[in-house]
Amino acid sequence: LCYSALLLTMIFSMGEPMPYHHYEHLNAEFVQFLLDVVEDGLLSDSTDQLPDLFVNVMLSFNLHILVPSNNIVMTTLAKRENVKVITEKLLLLLNRADDPVCIFKHQPQPPHSVLKFLQDVFADKSTGNIFYRTDMMVMIDIIVRQISDLSPGEKT
Questions:
Q1: Residues 144, 149, 151, CA angle at the centre, nearest 5°?
Q2: What is the pLDDT of residues 88-112, one digit of tens each?
Q3: Where in this chain does the record put each SPIN90/Ldb17 leucine-rich domain (predicted)?
Q4: CA dist 13 to 3, 33, 81, 123, Å?
Q5: What is the pLDDT of residues 123-133, one digit of tens each?
């Protein structure tokens, strides 16, 4: 599963639209499976790499979904009660200020996957409340620190 997750991340990281018939398999059940493994782990995963790899798959898969109202990642996320692990991983990635799915250096670059994911999360009330209040405070601290670290005229 590790290599499959890495391959899917590479394919989705381009940010290009998929053929429509792929959504027959890459649907809400697929996203639910990814979330289940991220949150609960998998018994056969002795290295504990799958949760991180599956977060990358979700981030890259979310890149090519342009309309938030049709976003199956956000719809599935909203239906889930426990998303503690994925929110922690998102905060960690935001703190690193690194895009884990930016694998290829091609033009035009797709948007930053973590920022787009967070933008999509906060675009809807049903997903906007998945973060705990303390996590929100940490997120604000991270953003303020990153802004204050910028030089005048510097672009991120």
A1: 125
A2: 999 999 999 889 998 888 777 888 9
A3: 48-154
A4: 15, 19, 27, 22
A5: 988 898 999 99
Look at residue 154 and tell me if it is in a domain. Answer: no
- Structural domain boundaries enclosing 91: 2-148
The encoded tokens of residue 74 equal 């956000």
Alpha-helical runs (H) found in the chain: 2-12, 28-40, 50-63, 72-79, 84-96, 113-122, 125-128, 133-148
Domain count, the chain: 1
Quote the CA–CA distance of 92 and 106 in Å, as a whole number: 26
Q: Which two tokens stand for residue 155?
A: 């672009």
**Assigned token pair, 139:** 């997120």
In a domain, 20, yes or no: yes
pTM of the entire predicted model: 0.89
Q: Which two tokens stand for residue 151?
A: 């030089």
Asked if residue 156 is part of any domain, the answer here is no
62 residue type, one letter = N
